[in-house]
Structures are given as structure tokens and as C-alpha cells.
Design a protein that fits this description.
Blueprint: H1 9-21, H2 41-53, E1 58-61, H3 66-81, E2 87-89, H4 102-107, E3 113-117, H5 124-132, E4 136-140, E5 154-156, H6 172-187, H7 193-206, H8 213-226, H9 232-240, H10 248-265, H11 269-275, H12 280-311, E6 319-324, H13 331-342, E7 346-351, E8 356-362, H14 369-374, E9 382-385, E10 389-395, H15 399-411, E11 424-427, H16 435-443, E12 455-469, E13 475-482, E14 485-491, E15 503-515, E16 518-528
Parallel strand pairs: 1-2, 1-3, 3-4, 4-5, 6-7, 11-12, 14-16
Antiparallel strand pairs: 7-8, 8-10, 9-10, 12-13, 12-15, 13-14, 15-16
Helix pairs in contact: 1-16, 2-6, 3-6, 3-7, 3-11, 6-7, 7-8, 7-10, 9-12, 10-11, 10-12, 11-12, 12-13
């Protein structure tokens, strides 16, 4: 950590700029790779064009998370724009399971061409059944490949070894966007590809893709378009939350959870219908329903979190807990909360009546959770995901050996890369905090996974005022002083264990607070020592 007297604006900018050097620098839309660089893109595009020309029945198969929801909505909007009728289906988490499955194939009989978005790369059996039913299959996915891949007419996935696409970490909605861009060229039509980036930017942030290389460029363009969007769903959201524009934090903490709640608590089709609303009345009614789902999700999550934490074994390197009939729709988000609370990778599993455990895992720090669990495939029935998030199922009698093997693999340090917290830039004094620093931080937005909001440390800070805030007084508002300079700050989910007059060290991010037209600096406190 640098001495406060040494930390200048130039050094802060140098630190932030280094994040992008290894990923090709600060790119813009003109730097995007051509769609043809994705393996099988041209082949898939030709087949879809042929289906359109021959008036074949096309079905889009999505997924129930934000990436799958937005990918499906993108395809719906595109086919509506070219006035070609299609069908679409989103698997129900509780009845159908994940992605393209045997159960889903039985629901799309009569389809000539099926196109998956954000799923399908692990659908071995379902792909075979498609072939038997005379359904030609195009898979578009971004997840890691299993040793065996499905047999399909075309597979677009940047993680295939033979794929020359230069960026490894992109999401399903980005591949759907690339497919739309390719079809635009093949059909020689005029559509506004920038407006499609609105949904893509939401998916990139929600699916925790690193906000670097083309991801950053697409999010920047998409978020700029979101503020002036004409889509009824976006207008409804902005009006409900009284916002003129969306930030990456708005998407991560408000929009994405609302979209996700439909699939967690009921059926993700509700979220697809909201995004693809054609008028503001429908959009508002559908948004109301999503908000109700999200409220129910919060209540269910809170109850389950309490049950899960009672089972946590503090000595485990990877937290693995299971319970009878835990709500499958929230185990993933609870796993994420457990990971943050315990600061360890966490897996939460629900047992059903068939003695099967099904659940989700979330990583912490630089741990490659997918890599660890990938080495335990022999104990699992189903498994998929990426480094930061996984889904899995296994028989209950395999749980203990699975748990034991996971702990051993973690300890082997082969797949765990411990690094210093990259979010801490260094030490600041209050007299260094101003709009010049805030504007510099804004220059490297959007922040998120892969480009975290920069954190700073200030020492020998006096608390001169503190108050609780929030409905349940669960947050704290502070006034701090250092060497005569006053600074306001807030800490979320904080317990009142501090006193006025106390000298502390702060770990924080800096944010611009705009209240009634007056702009001030505010510290978002992460830790007080």
C-alpha cells in the first residue's frame, strides 16, 4: 500500500489503466471482432436464412437467469423486427431443470429448427432426441465445455478449442447479439444493432463477465442507449424507480434481481414477456408482477440464509451445506451471500424426495470453483457453469465423499490463486478527495466484476457524528473528520458498535452524491477498524 504523500491522481490513473492492458486496452465498438470469427457462425446463419426463406418453424430455447432471459428477448425482438413468426420457450426451473433437456424437446415437437441461447453445450441426450424428432439444432452458448459435446448442426461457443474468437469471457446475450449482427448482414436488412446492446449490457453485468475488452465497450454503448431507450420495459423500469439513466450498480442491484426473481419464484417467461412488451401499459403491469416476485424472493432468501448459516462448518475451506426441501429458486443467491459472509467459496444444496441433492455454488476471490468441482465429476449427476458460479446435482449418498474431495482439492492449491485485493489502490487523506478524483474514477466506468470500484484507506479519522438509517435501522450514516476536514459517509448492513470521538481507519469507495441539484463527495464505507 502506497504512502498517502506519494499517491497522486497520476498514480491512481496508472493503476486503473493497468487493469486493461492485458485485455487489449480500452476498446470501443469499432474494435469488435467480426461475427465470422465465432466458429460455426456462418454455418448457423446460412441455416437460419434458409429456414426463413422456406417458412420453417423456428423455436428459441432460452434459460431462466438474466443472461438467458435477455438472450431470448433479443431473438424475439429481432424476429419481430423482420416480421417472421417464431416460438420461444424458457425452461421452468422446478419442472424442466436447466436449459435444453429431454423434457423441453417433448414440448417443441413439430419444430423444424431449434436455436438455443445461453444453454445447450451440455445437452447430450436432448440433442440426440432432437435428431430423432427431426428437429435440426443450433446451439449458441458460452459455458465451459464438458469432455463430450452434443451433436448439433452448428455450435457457436467461443470456448471451443477450434474457435478463433479472441475473447474467452463473454456471455450468452453477446453471442445472441453476434448472431443477430450476422443475420442482419446475410439478410441485407437495416436494423439498429446499438439498441440491441441495451439488453446485452444488462446480461454482461448480471452474468458477472469481466468489464474489460469488448465487454466494457458493449456495456458502455448499451448503457448509453438505455438512458434514451424507447423500449416499453426500460421506460417502465426508469419511471418506477424515478431514474433518468441506469448505472452498472442499478443493473446489478435492482434490475437484474427483479428479472431473476421470476425464474426463482415462479417462471422466467414472465421476465421475457416484460422485456419484450410492446406497450407501456403491459410493461407496467408485468413489472408490478416481477416486483412482487422479488419481494417474495427476499423473504424466502432471508429465511433460508438463517438456516444455512446454522450448518456452516467454519473450518471448511469450501462451505458445503444441504437441507430438506430448501427453495431451489434461491439456493444460488444464498450461496453467494454465504460466500461473501464467510469469505469462502460456498455450495448450497436442496434435497428432494428422490434422495437427490440439487443446488448452486459461488466462488470467492480468485478461487476457480468450476475447476475444483470439475475434478469431482464422477460423484455428480449434472454439472455446469464457469469459474465464479456453478450448478450441480448428486445423489445424497455421495455427499460426504464429494465434500471430502472438494476440501482436499482446495488445499492442493492447484486451482486456487491467492492474490492481494486488487480493489485497494492505496492510502488517501481527506484533503485529496475532491471532484478531480471523482471524475478520474468515472473515466474508467463501468465498474463491476473484472474492473472493481477502486478502494482507498484513510487513517486516524475521528467519528464526529453517527446515526442509523433504513426501515429497520440496519444502515449507518457518519460524519468523519481528519485534520480539520469533514467528510460524510454511509455503511450498509452495519451494527452500532462505534462511538462519537473514536479514532478509526476507514476502507471505502468514493461516490458522488447528488441531492436536490447539489453535488457532494460521499464515502461508501466497506470496513472500519
Amino acid at each position: 500500500m502506497k504512502n498517502s504523500s506519494e499517491l497522486t491522481l497520476e498514480q491512481i490513473e496508472s493503476h486503473l489503466k493497468k487493469r486493461f492492458e492485458e485485455s487489449g486496452g480500452l476498446l470501443n465498438l469499432s474494435n469488435l471482432p467480426h461475427p465470422s470469427m465465432l466458429k460455426d457462425m456462418d454455418k448457423a446463419c446460412e441455416r437460419i436464412v434458409s429456414a426463413i426463406q422456406n417458412k420453417e418453424k423456428i423455436t428459441i430455447i432460452g434459460d431462466y437467469d438474466v443472461d438467458g432471459i435477455t438472450s431470448t428477448a433479443l431473438m424475439i425482438l429481432f424476429f419481430e423486427e423482420i416480421n417472421y413468426p417464431i416460438k420461444w420457450i424458457i425452461p421452468n426451473r422446478f419442472k424442466d431443470g436447466y436449459g435444453l433437456s429431454v423434457n423441453i424437446v417433448s414440448k417443441i415437437k413439430g419444430t423444424d429448427l431449434a436455436i438455443t441461447v445461453d444453454n445447450g453445450i451440455s445437452a447430450i441426450q436432448a440433442a440426440e432426441l432432437c435428431k430423432k424428432e427431426g428437429i435440426e439444432l443450433i446451439i449458441t452458448d458460452h459455458h465451459l465445455l464438458s469432455p463430450e459435446i452434443p451433436k448439433a448442426y452448428a455450435i457457436i461457443n467461443q470456448k471451443q478449442k477450434e474457435c478463433p474468437f479472441p475473447y474467452f469471457d463473454i456471455c450468452g446475450a453477446q453471442i445472441a447479439w453476434y448472431l443477430i449482427a450476422s443475420l442482419k448482414n446475410a439478410l441485407n436488412i437495416k436494423i439498429d444493432l446499438i439498441s440491441y446492446l441495451e439488453f446485452v449490457s444488462i446480461a454482461i453485468i448480471a452474468d458477472m463477465m469481466p468489464l474489460q475488452h469488448i465487454n466494457r465497450a458493449m456495456v458502455q454503448a448499451g448503457m448509453k442507449s438505455l438512458s434514451k431507450s424507447t423500449k416499453p420495459s426500460i421506460r417502465a423500469f426508469l419511471e418506477f424507480y424515478q431514474k433518468e439513466e441506469l448505472s452498472s450498480e442499478d443493473i446489478a442491484f435492482f434490475f437484474a434481481p427483479i428479472l431473476n426473481s421470476a425464474g426463482r419464484m415462479d417462471d422466467a417467461s414472465n421476465a421475457v414477456e416484460f422485456l419484450s412488451s410492446t406497450n407501456i401499459y403491459d410493461a407496467n403491469k408485468r413489472l408490478e408482477r416481477l416486483i412482487e416476485f422479488n419481494a417474495l424472493r427476499k423473504t424466502t432468501e432471508h429465511k433460508l440464509m438463517h438456516q444455512v448459516m446454522q450448518q456452516v462448518k467454519p473450518d471448511d475451506n469450501v462451505i458445503i451445506v444441504s437441507g430438506r426441501d430448501w427453495h431451489e429458486g434461491v439456493v444460488g443467491i444464498v450461496a453467494a451471500r454465504v460466500a461473501q459472509t464467510c469469505q469462502k467459496p460456498s455450495i448450497v444444496l436442496s434435497e428432494n424426495t428422490e434422495k437427490m441433492l440439487k443446488g448452486s455454488g459461488r466462488s470467492f476471490g480468485e478461487c476457480d470453483l468450476f475447476g475444483i468441482i470439475d475434478n469431482c465429476r464422477d460423484h455428480l449427476e449434472k454439472f455446469g457453469g464457469h469459474q465464479a458460479a456453478i450448478g450441480l446435482s448428486l445423489h445424497k449418498d455421495k455427499l460426504e465423499i464429494f465434500r471430502s474431495e472438494v476440501q482436499k482439492l482446495y488445499k492442493s492449491n492447484v486451482i486456487v490463486n491467492e492474490i492481494q485485493d486488487p480493489e485497494i489502490i492505496g492510502e488517501l487523506k481527506f484533503d485529496q478527495i475532491g471532484f478531480a478524483l471523482i471524475n478520474l474514477i468515472k473515466k474508467y466506468e463501468p465498474y463491476g466484476y473484472g474492473n472493481p470500484v477502486p478502494k482507498f484507506v484513510s487513517k486516524n479519522v475521528e467519528i464526529i457524528q453517527l446515526d442509523t438509517m433504513g426501515k429497520e435501522e440496519e444502515h449507518m450514516r457518519f460524519v468523519f473528520m481528519q485534520e480539520g476536514i469533514i467528510m460524510h459517509g454511509v455503511k450498509f448492513k452495519a451494527k452500532k458498535t462505534l462511538n462519537i470521538g473514536q479514532k478509526v481507519t476507514l476502507l471505502y469507495t468514493i461516490n458522488e452524491n447528488n441531492y436536490r441539484g447539489k453535488k457532494t463527495q460521499q464515502l461508501i464505507i466497506k470496513k472500519i477498524v
